[in-house]
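Q: I'm writing up a methods section and want to include an example of the input and output format. Could you take the sequence below and give the corresponding predicted structure tokens, formatted cleanly so I can copy it straight into the document?
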Amino acid sequence: MNWDDVRMFLAVARSGQILAASRRLGINHATLGRRVTALEEDLRTRLLIRRTNGCELTAEGEVFFRAAERMETEMLAAQASTGRIDTAIAGTVRIGAPDGFGVSFLAPRLGRLTRRHPELKLQLVPVPRSFSLSQREADIAITIEQPEHGRLVSSKLTDYTLGLYASKAYLAEAGIPESVEALKDHARVGYVEDLIFSPSLNFTGEIMRDWDASFEISSAIGQTEAVRSGAGIGILHDYIARQYPELVRVLPGITIRRAYWTTYHESGRNLMRLKAVIAFLGELVREEGHIFV
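A: Here is the clean output for your methods example:
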């Protein structure tokens, strides 16, 4: 059995598409398809059901996928123990991040890292959801909770705060609330409740029992834009809201505290490209940590 074929199968299984996996691996999609077929022929079983819109693991493919992940972990460990681990900071690293942190903080700053390491390719996926590291939806995930299960390595990146904000124009028209009770008389912006993927995102419950927003947006950046437009009062990340002079902190005595964590699968522990990205994230936060508190 060819290990490269196994590695390519893992890429397809994790992305769910031969085309997407080929782009990530940097090879032709037809070549990738042939390599997976060769692996199936070696194993004398069908691993993937190939459809026009993607691939799905067969029952045998599910079993082999778990075995292949164990092989991958052992291969990385063997490379590390013999000193044959990759030493070049090159290749692709996909970072999954909450949209607020990804768009407002990482996107303007990650170019420094690619200039530092020209052979490193970064993929930033800033969306308001969680990422499956076991399925390799991301190589590194910025999470808002420390994972408790799975073969994952995590460390706290930074604490951050949120508060109540409204636009100057909205407050000029609707008045400034002097208490939490007074918030009931104001238009409120919040998350789409059934799309909240983590209890940590239920900020409103820490302020009032029934937030009952008139405008719900499942995106931190979207909420910021809505509040800037005068749609109402919202709970915004302080490090984002402070960038906009038209936003005013309402009830400044109320502060919500959360933390960001860097998390990755333990099989990538010895990959230099992952180490470089994680170290750079820590460097950024040390340099600009004052904006988060």
